[in-house]
Specification:
194 residues, alpha/beta, two-stranded antiparallel sheet, 5 helices
Amino acid sequence: MRKLILFMHVSLDGFVCGPNNEQDWMTMDDHEMGEFMASDFQKTVDTMLVGRVLYEGFASFWPTVPAMPNTPPELVDFAHWMINTPKIVFSKTLQTVDWTNSRLAQHDLAEEVAQIKQQPGGDIIVFGGASLVAALAGQNLIDEYRIKLEPIILGAGKPLFALINDRVKLKLTRSKAFSSGVVGLYYEVDRPVA
């Protein structure tokens, strides 16, 4: 069965953005980190889940990247992957989505994820949207956490695990420290075999 992967920057104290949604603290220019953390999911993931805010940001940014001067080839490749990968948008306010390969979710979160996982295909990724990620984590729908642990303490902001009330046992499958101070952590959710 397909798995749902969370890929996210997190501060040392567990926040995904600051109190005013600021993300200026995220390390974005570490080539080694990008290669380690992004290149593998480009080979296995063929569906993306996004909330409204992230969808609108992605739709305005990623199509412009290939035409930007001096853009590294790996970022151009990633931009093409972002553009071409099917995107399912969760929104209570959008009536339509028109970015390439995008559609609005047709069911509630748990039902939509269950249906996608049952279909043939590769893995599914969610990059964020603090609310969407919190809802996915709160309903124990995430199968693997790929965390870019940032070397910063924010003190306040939106927590990654705001809606989790029960223990979720994880198994570390891969890790790497980068010269930027970021630590890449891969955890699989350790669910009991039925």
